[in-house]
User: Fold this.
Amino acid sequence: MKTTLEELLAGGRPIVADGGMGTMLFNAGLQRGQAPELWNIERPDVVRSIHAGYIQAGAQIILTNTFGGNRARLDMHALGERAVEFNRAAAQLARAEADSAAQPVVVGGSIGPTGMMLEPL
Assistant:
């Protein structure tokens, strides 16, 4: 069921978010050194199942499987050129689960670090 963060906040009650996507992907067989975002394309059923599990557990906010979905981070796996594809797929998977939920669920984008060391300004 579609809702907005503003609507959830207006309810005046505590809001429950999902848990770690990466941990759940490792539990489902993701190998160390493999880009989790690749599963948005190669194992979408697993990603959707994780979202569904969090929603069934009461999550009102779920985050996309995009923590390492930036080009710099994906370049470490020779996948940088597919960043848009992975991020779009992740958003579609999360949105599909949120829309099919019986309760209102907000989808948020997960944005993690690049993994690069940068020169101080």
User: Anything to note?
Assistant: Residues 5-108 form one domain. The chain is about 45% helix and 5% strand. The radius of gyration is 15 Å. The longest strand covers residues 61-63.
